[in-house]
Specification:
Layout: E1 3-14, E2 22-23, E3 26-27, E4 30-40, E5 45-50, H1 54-65, H2 77-86, H3 90-96, H4 108-128, H5 132-136, E6 147-148, H6 156-166, E7 171-175, H7 184-198, E8 203-207, H8 214-221
Helix pairs in contact: 1-4, 2-3, 2-4, 6-7
Length: 222
């Protein structure tokens, strides 16, 4: 069995003006992702995804990384990761037991490698008819799931967060900065409304998306 094809599909979709929000990458005006497909000779396809600039990810995957995977056995997942990460140093890395990465294995290149690694694990799980968590080494039977959202402004956060609990979630994550104006008072109002929505028994978490400086974070945590 061997890998016959590696390809990337660049995707981009604009965020409607009324749904845009602040993140550590400033105001989010579009959502980008690259779907990565790795195919074996029996036609089985593993699917992964990378964030980052899609045309750049696509170029790295298809132009630089794909050749190192073609004709390889897709079940040798760790060896393939070493080839992707250390490049021509992969053999001494495996022999010595530690990676010897090149200087360019960082940033967007790691985004591309991560997407390929996900696709390879997905392919392996499909070929062996096993969930990936079993292949990685399962230690528990279940994990807690939580809802992720919480963009609604002001008092509307109560209904939004209550909706997650009504769907069966016992934990939910909301955003520090929502669809309303950026102000500490607005955050306080939204969090209080969210807590009313989920009640006292559900966990409520907050995500600032890296959009707050240190002094503002301290003021908001007080």
């Amino acid at each position: 069995m061997h890998i016959t094809d590696v390809r990337a599909v660049a995707l981009s979709d604009p965020v409607p003006a009324e749904k845009r929000h602040r993140t550590d990458l400033e105001t989010k005006v579009k959502t980008d992702a690259t779907v990565i497909l790795v195919e074996s000779d029996d036609g089985t396809v593993g699917i992964g995804a990378s964030l980052g600039h899609p045309p750049t990810i696509t170029s790295i995957v298809e132009g630089e990384l794909a050749p190192s995977l073609l004709d390889e056995d897709p079940l040798y997942t760790e060896r393939l990761w070493e080839k992707l990460y250390t490049g021509s140093r992969w053999q001494p890395s495996l022999e010595r037991g530690y990676s010897q990465p090149r200087a360019d294995r960082r940033g967007v290149t790691l985004e591309a490698i991560s997407g390929l690694d996900i696709a390879l694990w997905d392919l392996k799980g499909t070929l062996l008819d096993q969930p990936v968590y079993n292949l990685l080494g399962a230690v528990r039977d279940d994990v807690q799931g939580y809802a992720s959202g919480g963009w609604a402004p002001g008092e509307e956060a109560e209904a939004e967060l209550r909706g997650y609990v009504e769907k069966g979630f016992d934990a939910a994550k909301m955003r520090v900065v929502g669809e309303d104006d950026f102000a500490i008072a607005n955050t306080v109002e939204r969090v209080e409304a969210a807590r009313r929505g989920v009640g006292d028994d559900a966990e409520l978490m907050m995500d600032a998306h890296g959009c707050l400086d240190v002094s503002t974070s301290r003021r908001r945590s007080g």
